Amino acid sequence: MKLIVGIDIGNATTESTLAQVDGEKVQVLSSGIVKTTGIKGTKENIKGVFKSLQKALENCGKTLEEVSLIRINEAAPVIGDVAMETITETIITESTMIGHNPSTPGGIGIGVGISLPIEDIKKDHVGVEVIALINKDVDFQVAARTINNLVKMGVNITGAIVQKDDAVLINNRLDRKIPIIDEVLHIEKVPVNMKTAIEVSEKGKVISMLSNPYGIATLFDLTPEETKMIMPLSRALIGNRSAVVIKTPKGDVKSKIIPAGELNITGESKKRSVRVDRGSKEIMSAIKACHPVNDIYGETGTNAGGMLEKVRVVMAQLTDQNVKNIKIQDLLAVDTFVPQKVVGGMAGEFAMENAIGVAAMVKADKLQMKMVASNLEEKLDIAVEVGGVEAEMAIIGSLTTPGTTKPLAILDMGAGSTDASIITKSGEISSCHLAGAGNMVTMLIDRELGLGDFDLAEDIKKYPLAKVESLFHIRHEDGSVQFFDTQLDPGIFARIVILKDGEMQPLEIDGNIEKIKNIRREAKKKVFVENGIRALVRISPTSNIRDIDYVVLVGGSALDFEIPQMITDSLAHYGIVAGRGNIRGVEGPRNAVATGLSLSYREG
Ligand SMILES: Nc1ncnc2c1ncn2[C@@H]1O[C@H](COP(=O)(O)OP(=O)(O)OP(=O)(O)O)[C@@H](O)[C@H]1O
Ligand SMILES: [Mg+2]
Fold it and tell me: Cross-referenced InterPro entries, in alphabetical order (predicted)?
């Protein structure tokens, strides 16, 4: 009898499975899981391997001395990295919009009129609709009194734009309430004597007229051509509580397409080039056409070039190889939006710019894992061998899920890559590795919400949201309400929180629950539904996804509270039964590769 251990070094976690071998019989005793140390396939991994092994030993009361063999996954075939570039830029060449979100605008509703400094509004304007411009030298009491007098005189003041934070103060003193936008820093840039529209929505709501191109067209009598022109403007205003749009004679908001460059894909038999600004669909179909791909590189001197070269350089440094030897063998591109400061804005406006996110996968050198193995052997003084291919091991492990049998396909959804494999009735296994998995979802959430904080984005990905509506109740993101007997922390009152491990963690970000939830769900779909289908098509013996009947979902991302459901739904269209794995009936979707590594051991 002897003890062996299978260890799976992943991009994110290092998992181990300790087993007892008695002739033909391999019996699993325990498992361990820790964070991977260093980049997958480098000697920095050894620390994590040791810790993971230690955990597994602790879990069944054995010691390192009793272990006679360690089996690690072969060749760490893939390393993933992610990058993102914007491909549009919104530029205001004349002052035509103020889309900022002052914290306390005044009044509610829509006002349309001619923009005039309050001191210039006179008797001549009786019967005219006017939007008053109030600069910082005008006291709020004076402003309110002046507006009240003008209205009495018969001037129709329909709204106001204020430089200081005075909207509420002014509005409280008005006989007839109007929408007011304040904190407009550069009020001097607001063009005078131009048709202007203002919209302020109720607290907790967002504007609907000025964020809709046809809404703007209605207010300003625009032609279809003009409506097309203001499209980027209305898009930039989506999600705001208040906004101003001003029509100037040649007023212009331009959405400029940044020349993002081309991706060049070299396949074994085909070559394709595709412009990055054509979007993810065209990129993905070019990659499909070139399968199997030898390398992908971007046009030098462009964003696309920069994006892929960055991946290549990082990979070269981390794996101690020459940049020339780094080949990108798969790429997942997704369309996204990222908030960017508008060039030429008046109040620090942000626009959601189009962007492309990519996950790239690099084939690691086969020798790398051998090196890790020999390093490990030296350090621990235990025999170490490189066991089977990751995806093959994953399927052997997955077959321990109760209720599964051959033929079977699996999707291993990790941090850096989505791997798929299939085993036929007679036991033949084929597999593939695709770029893009959990890390990419996290990056998309991070960028689209403008967080700049990977760990926070990771939490937003993993946990559901709620809004603390009173000190005794919260509203979950699905609309249901939960009451509490004891008072909640006043510090989280009226905040959006993530429900993490029984705690409420407040989010310090703008935006409502719907928006955050949408971004989160879309990011998951864009990565995992796309990759799930791509992977299964590739491993299907007939290249037809419909010829696969059963799929087991494993890997850390299969723990997600919504990803498995999304994949199950999308695969149901093809008549495929899919569900989360439960390795050895106890591990859930975790530990598949490590389990496969120990179970596939044969003495001799
Ligand atoms: N509870 C959870 N909900 C959602 N995602 C999760 C959860 N736990 C872990 N993840 C995600 O799972 C991923 C890690 O999965 P896993 O440990 O299988 O990867 P890995 O095997 O180390 O990576 P790879 O297979 O790419 O080398 C991370 O992206 C992480 O965010
Ligand atoms: Mg993995």
Answer: ATPase_NBD (IPR043129), DDR_dom (IPR030994), DDR_swiveling (IPR040916), DDRA (IPR009191), DDRA_swiveling_dom_sf (IPR028975), NA-bd_OB-fold (IPR012340)
What are the mean pLDDT values of the chain's consecutive 10-residue runs (604 residues total)?
93 95 94 91 89 96 94 66 68 58 84 95 93 95 96 95 93 95 85 90 86 90 83 76 78 61 92 90 95 89 78 76 85 87 68 83 74 90 87 92 94 92 92 92 92 95 96 94 95 94 89 89 97 95 91 97 96 94 97 96 82
Topology of domain 81-87+258-363 in CATH is Ribosomal Protein L22; Chain A (3.90.470)
Ligand nearest, relative to CA of residue 501 = 1
Q: Is 279 annotated as a binding residue?
A: no
Asked if 246 contacts 273 with a C-beta cutoff of 8 angstroms, the reply is no
Task: Tell me the best of 559, 566, 593, 597 to mutate to test the pocket of ligand 1, counting ligand atoms within 8 Å of each CB and taking the most.
Answer: 559
Q: Which pair of structure tokens corresponds to residue 119?
A: 């001191």
CA quadruple 296, 302, 308, 313: dihedral, nearest 10: 120
Query: Cα(first)–Cα(last) distance of the chain, in Å?
Result: 13
Q: Which pLDDT score, from 0 to 100, does residue 76 have?
A: 46
Cα 230 from Cα 251, distance rounded (Å): 10
At 593 the pLDDT is 94
In ligand 1, the atom with minimum distance to the C-alpha of 590 is 18
The token duo for 153 is 């005189």
Under CATH, what is the fold of the domain 96-250?
Glucose Oxidase; domain 1 (3.50.30)
Residue partners of 47: CB distance under 8 A and separation at least 6: 37, 38
Rounded CA gap, 183 and 276, in Å?
A: 38
Q: Is 182 annotated as a binding residue?
A: yes
DSSP class of 529: I
* ipTM for the assembly: 0.99
| Residues with a CB atom less than 6 Å from ligand 1 | 10-13, 36, 40, 414-417, 437-439, 458, 462, 555-557, 559-560
Known binding residue 88? Answer is: no
The whole-model pTM stands at: 0.82
Tell me how crowded residue 29 is: count the other CB atoms within 10 A of its CB.
17
Task: Point out the ligand nearest to the CA of residue 80.
Answer: 1
Distance from the alpha carbon of residue 502 to the mean position of ligand 1, in angstroms: 21
The Å distance, Cα 580 to ligand 1 centre, comes to 14
Where do we find the tokens 């390393």?
Answer: 79
Using the mean position of ligand 1's atoms as its centre, give its distance from the Cα of residue 208 in Å: 39
How far, in Å, from the CA of 368 to the mean position of ligand 2?
17
From 389, 557, 590, the mutation candidate for ligand 1 (largest count of ligand atoms within 8 A of CB) is 557
Instruction: State yes or no: 404 annotated in a binding site.
Output: no
Q: Has 382 been labeled as part of a binding site?
A: no
Q: Where are the domains of the chain?
A: 1-75+367-397+590-603, 81-87+258-363, 96-250
**What fold does the segment set 1-75+367-397+590-603 form as a domain?**
Nucleotidyltransferase; domain 5 (3.30.420)
Cα 189 to ligand 2 centre (Å): 55
